[in-house]
Amino acid sequence: MRTTTSVTELRQLLRERIPNTRLEVGVRRRGTPVSTGVRSLDAVLGGGLVSGDLTELVGTGHGSGSVQVLHALLRRLAGDGRFLALIDGGDSFDVDAEEPEVLARMLWVRCVDADAALKATDFVLRDRNLPVVVLDLKLNPVTQLKRIPGSVWHRFSRLAEQNGTTVLVVTPFALVGGAAARVEVAARLDPSAHATGPGAVLEQLEFNLLRQESAAASS
Asked: Which of 20, 107, 136, 187 is 20 to 30 A from 73, alpha carbon to alpha carbon?
């Protein structure tokens, strides 16, 4: 799989691999839910991720279940013929866990730290070609995350709203100021669940809604 090492390469890759993606998908208006592929999470969020804004998924501790959610979202979007950009803040995504046809629908930006991940996210949001963007900061050190200024989230929120982009930010603790929705995921997994397939694992995840904007506030 091709990876990017600079903003210049990222720009070229977007031109080569995902031309006119917006023309295929269309711009979603804020408030239209985008299914995550996880029924219990969609139910908590009122249908799915908030389109045109930021949703924060908080996974506390190792094995919280956030990885399973990310893979479910990728498979759901790929099944619908749509693209996803994964900004991988800790360079931790396991490509061996997905089929090639699923990976073909993902732009994977591998980053060395949170600062690089934020810069890549900013660029992808401004590019406007990808309707769903995931910023995974789950494994970045707390020292890096606590240096992120609040203005970053405000800027990302405005870009998402302007372009109709659905943004999911995965974090180890509540971090994203002004997120339209914040959900905590916790795994209570039976060790045998992995042997029976991803569906059984997803059914055992528990979600707790920590924050959600009202419909009136987001209109």
From this structure: 20
